[in-house]
Amino acid sequence: MGEYEFFISRIEDMALLSDKKGGSVFSSFLDPSDQMVGGREIGRYKGKDCSFFGGHIYTERKIMSIFKEGHEPEESEYPIKVLKSKEALDVRHQDVLGSILSLSVDRSKVGDINILDDHIEIFVYDTISEFLVSELTKIGGNNVTFYECDINEASVIEPKFKELNIIVPSMRLDAVIGNIFKLSRNEANMFVKGGKVKINHNQVSKPAMTVKVGDMISVRTKGRAIVDSESGQTKKGNTKLLVKKFV
Length: 247
Fold this sequence. Notes:
Strand content: 25-35%
CATH topology of the largest domain: Structural Genomics Hypothetical 15.5 Kd Protein In mrcA-pckA Intergenic Region, Chain A
GO molecular function: RNA binding
Protein name: RNA-binding S4 domain-containing protein
Helix content: 25-40%
Radius of gyration: 21 Å
Keywords: RNA-binding
Shape: globular
InterPro entries: Nucleotide-bd_a/b_plait_sf, RqcP2_RBD, S4_RNA-bd, S4_RNA-bd_sf
Domain RNA-binding S4: 171-232
Structural class: alpha+beta
Strand order of the largest sheet: 10-15-14-13-11-12
Order of helices and strands: HEHEEEHEEHEEEEHHEEEEE
């Protein structure tokens, strides 16, 4: 059974458990791709609904809840804790995550990680909160002390964008990502065919596919961007786009 099939099976198990318990059932933390699958699959189960929450409105990794229609759980019911460091550290996201995973913690139990000017915040599943407070004492060679804080005290980090006005010969994927991320046509094709490009969190493999307004495009190692709007054609028939690139 592949990862996709396993996740579909997990959703079915959650729906059945929700019937048995008569209440909400919660998944582990899901990435945006799995959130899309979960939201789509729940329609197969009559009388069931779902919602997602990861600590605040802008979190990328979220927990899925499945419940009887009309009985959505409160945000406070989600099994999420927030860990905050007492120290400010000059580290990267991968340093923090790597230190957590080195403690044999499952990735699915860890949500978003925010590295701020004066502290670090980590959203985690409630079952591992005490363990991490006790054991996560070093990141990137730096000593660190974490404590559990109220989820309402967590920083709400809004995505930041840089607006780009670009002109493309067509809405082909390779043309669009080439312009946004400064790639040659050949490089853009290699990224797509190499499985390094996603549109709306779904991996794509055809350089000639058409990009639409509203699509979010991610290119591994290069970044992410949203095609915000189209503003007409040039005299030569090229398309003018406004793109919001994540920074």
